[in-house]
């Protein structure tokens, strides 16, 4: 069962999310928060697997709440849900440790799929948002520093996995391309994230472009 915490200052929105999620046998809503402070407290007390987080809330906003929630070890995955298609929200959410970012004009099916993706330890970013991340972070000459030096710690196979992650490949797709089992791929992905000090696959995409492992259009 995937435990989900809802954080949104609009009661009707939370009710709508609850109705959508509780139609699924594998999803359980374990709490509702009307602001960021409540979200942080409930994340600690209810131990959700995924937090659905609004951005604009009174008091502590969703971005600051995400920073506090993801600082826990282990902490839940945070899926940012917002009405506002703004680059600053997108980049701040990623920097805060969010594992996914969706707009509220999406479909219920997309929301349910996103929760399941995050619950199994993956990250989710719509293709159009990925392109914007790449355009911002893929800077010529970027990628120097401590984390960039850690690239040398990756084995050749782990470097192949990082390239595949940057292309947005799933574990199943990587397994097929590299002729590996999915369990082996999952182990490689985990090692790549650990060695590079990254939280999730979205961070790996940004890292790969920022440090020249792959290049836009390459």
From TrEMBL:
Chain positions with 4-aspartylphosphate modification: 54
Keywords associated with the record: DNA-binding, Phosphoprotein, Transcription, Transcription regulation
What's the domain of life for this entry? Bacteria
Q: Which GO terms describe its molecular function?
A: DNA binding
Q: Which Pfam families match?
A: GerE, Response_reg
Keyword Transcription regulation part of the UniProt annotation: yes
Q: Outline the extent of the HTH luxR-type domain.
A: 147-212
Q: Can you give the residue ranges of the Response regulatory domain?
A: 3-119
Keyword match DNA-binding: yes
Q: What Gene3D superfamilies does UniProt report for this protein, alphabetically?
A: 3.40.50.2300
The record's SUPFAM superfamilies line, in alphabetical order, gives:
C-terminal effector domain of the bipartite response regulators, CheY-like
What CDD domains does this protein map onto?
LuxR_C_like, REC_NarL-like
- What processes in GO biological process is this protein linked to? phosphorelay signal transduction system; regulation of DNA-templated transcription
PANTHER family linked to this entry: TRANSCRIPTIONAL REGULATORY PROTEIN NARL-RELATED (PTHR43214:SF24), TWO-COMPONENT RESPONSE REGULATOR (PTHR43214)
Q: What's the protein name? A: DNA-binding response regulator
Q: Which organism is it from?
A: Dactylosporangium siamense
Q: What is the lineage of its organism?
A: Bacteria, Bacillati, Actinomycetota, Actinomycetes, Micromonosporales
